[in-house]
Specification:
- There is one protein chain.
- This protein is mainly α.
- It folds into three domains: 168 residues, MFS general substrate transporter like domains (Growth Hormone, Chain: A, Up-down Bundle), CATH 1.20.1250.20; 54 residues, no CATH class; 185 residues, Growth Hormone, Chain: A, CATH 1.20.1250.20.
- It is built from 17 helices and no strands.
- It is globular.
Length: 434
């Protein structure tokens, strides 16, 4: 919850922070970019750290570092200091999600899907409350409270985790794959930065993307040779279930974040809605996801990952098509109903496929599996949003806005269709490994 709350509150505060520090947009956007890039740099280390030090220790340490980073961010007196503190937060944030999933996969047993669904609820609540809470804090208490809000949440989380989380299993004396780390972490960071630059039309984007391809390609060759000693064991992807689950996770985030980019622009630019009204119109999508998360785990256990994830992707597709077909007079009530359907569908894809991925690998491979799945999750969003942004820009040069957005919604629907095809490669019922 803390990470989702923090990122959404910071996003709505960028304009205010720019005014406070007298920084232009090109500088102040690094308050967000530094967090994301440091997250990408830290993420590949999560599996090795879990094996070497234990998931519980790293989980508690990451919460502590995040709280310290939040406190220092609130105390920052220059934009450079604030950006440096956000790097600290990003490192902790990059390790938290795989740590949490690792512990759930180890201890949830046959109820893995149900536990993942319940654990996703606070994250969803944080993302839903973040923009409204951030606006309230900026208006009534000031920008420093955007970061101070993390303190009570973080301290409570540390207290609960200390007494509730099980002790770590015996740790593994595993050497750090330094060469692999020096290739994959900068490669992922360059990929993330290159995609953002490409969407903005930055002329340097191809250079960053080319370097990322070279580094990531080098890591793949290195990891295939290193096998057990690699930072991430790529042999996991030879398993059909794990491969299908990873692709489903990637496409699920592309569908989700692609919609978060496209839908507000549609209401603002095509339908002429105000920012306030746009926020209200988008609320049903978040509600749909909120209602899907707590029931998908139980349904997955009963009907299997293939049926539930596939149905979720199909529902997301059905909720997207009305926007591709919408005319200038299409009722907003119809579109908000479609958004609820779409949100319910998107919220139904991730949990069954994640549970399938972790149930398909042996216990000793869970640390590598959670790292790999989290990388697929994290980078599905940037790839999807960049593809949609570039396609929309091209369409706007040749068509009226309504036609341009309609064509782009068809592309978003196609991504949902690809997610459906990936989900259909998941197995039905899985054996309980843990």
């Amino acid at each position: 919850m803390m990470s989702g709350l923090d990122s959404t509150m910071v996003n709505v505060s960028l304009d205010t922070l720019g005014q406070v520090f007298g920084a232009p947009l090109g500088i102040i956007q690094w308050v967000t970019s530094a967090y994301l890039l440091s997250l990408a740099l830290a993420l590949p280390l999560s599996g090795w750290l879990m094996d070497r030090l234990g998931a519980r220790r790293i989980f508690l340490g990451c919460f502590a570092v995040f709280v310290v980073g939040s406190t220092l961010s609130a105390m920052a007196t220059t934009v450079e200091a604030l950006i440096a503190c956000r790097v600290l937060q990003g490192i902790a944030g990059g390790l938290l999600a795989p740590m949490m999933q690792m512990m759930m996969a180890r201890h949830a047993g046959k109820h893995m899907a149900r536990v993942i669904g319940i654990a996703a609820m606070p994250v969803m609540i944080g993302q839903m409350l973040g923009p409204s809470l951030g606006g309230f804090l900026l208006t009534h208490l000031g920008w420093r409270w955007i970061f101070l809000m993390n303190l009570p949440v973080g301290v409570l989380a540390i207290f609960c985790a200390w007494f509730v989380l099980p002790r770590d299993d015996v740790t593994v004396p595993r050497r750090l794959d330094l060469l692999g780390f020096l290739m994959i972490s900068p490669g992922l960071a360059l990929l993330l930065h290159g995609l953002a630059a490409l969407a903005l039309g930055d002329a340097t984007a191809p250079i960053g993307l080319l370097l990322s391809v070279i580094l990531l390609g080098g890591f793949i060759l290195h990891a295939l040779r290193a096998r057990n000693t690699a930072l991430i064991d790529l042999r996991l992807f030879t398993g059909r279930t794990f491969r299908a689950a990873a692709m489903t996770q990637f496409l699920s985030n592309a569908i989700n974040f692609g919609g978060q980019l496209l839908l507000p622009l549609y209401f603002l630019k095509v339908r002429g809605a105000s920012p306030g009204l746009t926020g209200l119109l988008l609320a049903p999508m978040a509600l749909g996801m909120f209602f899907a998360l707590p029931v998908m785990g139980r349904l997955s256990e009963r009907f299997g990952a293939r049926m539930i994830s596939g149905a979720g992707a199909g529902i997301a597709l059905l909720g997207t098509v009305p926007f591709a077909l919408a005319g200038p007079e299409t009722s907003l009530l119809v579109l908000t109903g479609a958004l609820f359907v779409r949100g319910f569908g998107v919220g139904s894809i991730t949990i069954p496929s994640a549970a399938a991925a972790y149930a398909s690998v042996p216990r000793e491979s869970l640390s590598s599996a959670t790292t790999a799945i989290n990388i697929c999750q994290r980078f599905g969003g940037p790839v999807g949003t960049t593809a949609l942004a570039l396609f929309l820009q091209h369409q706007l040069t040749a068509n009226y806005p309504l036609a341009a957005y309609a064509a782009t919604f068809w592309l978003l629907a196609a991504l949902a269709g690809a997610g459906l095809l990936a989900a259909l490669r998941l197995p039905g019922h899985l054996p309980t490994r843990y």
